Fold Solute-binding protein family 3/N-terminal domain-containing protein.
Amino acid sequence: MRGKRIRLVTGLATALALALTGCGGGGGDQLGGGGTEVTVDQNAQFEPGTTMANLKQQGTIRIGTKFDQPLFGLKGLDGKPQGFDVEIGKIIAGRLGIAPDRIEWVEAPSKTREEIIEQGRVDMVVATYTINDARKQRISFAGPYYEAGQDIMVRSDDNRITGPESLRPTGAKVCSVTGSTPAEEIKKYVDEANLVLFDVYSKCADALRTGQVQAVTTDNVILLGLVEQSGGQFKLVEKPFTSEPYGIGIKKGDVKFCEFINQALTQASQDGSYAKAWQATAGKVAKQTPPLPQLDPCS
């Protein structure tokens, strides 16, 4: 994990946002995508041979995202993913001149994100993807576009677990997802024999519901969606203990694509489309719209 950042996301209420929002861009057409409107920059011009030029020419883009993450990336009844990550992907596609209906959404579970980037199965990944040094050995990141904090979810009637320091003394079994940063971070607070790993967080929620584990840990924004889906069975401890900068994963060393994405994020922050994307998704439950974090240099 990168160095700790000061800002953590707090004050989120427990609710599920499935709505999508529009995102801006100059000189384009307003086109719908899953009930949303986005501005597609039809006049976008790029240096020949760059990833941007190639994507603009083919008129399509493959974006990896989560399909089971309420608020950020959840596959809806119409078969299309919805959430803040999805909106960020649509903003970037729009800056490339690619309409929402020309995006191919690829499921990107935590344990396969680097693999699908390296294999060229996606053009980028926007999937609650924490930037860290280990991942930078294999892929490059643009962003960050958001900062979350790791927290703990328990059953609503459980008052023994009050934070990460209470996990080992209570002998709690804790669930997280294979290959995720939270799964590594929680090892500081729980014996490895009591760490249960699945491929998706929905299985962790099922394990908590049936009493196979006593806690689930990941980023707070992910847990909030699971809390909402639980129908009152779960609650958040609300003691975030890390800072998780979410980045956009791309092929390693593609500096020009990274710089383009960072420019698109900056423009979205300036023209209000970033805020609109948040307010129509995670902002349905958040009291404050977060600012775009300081962007890392591309390398």
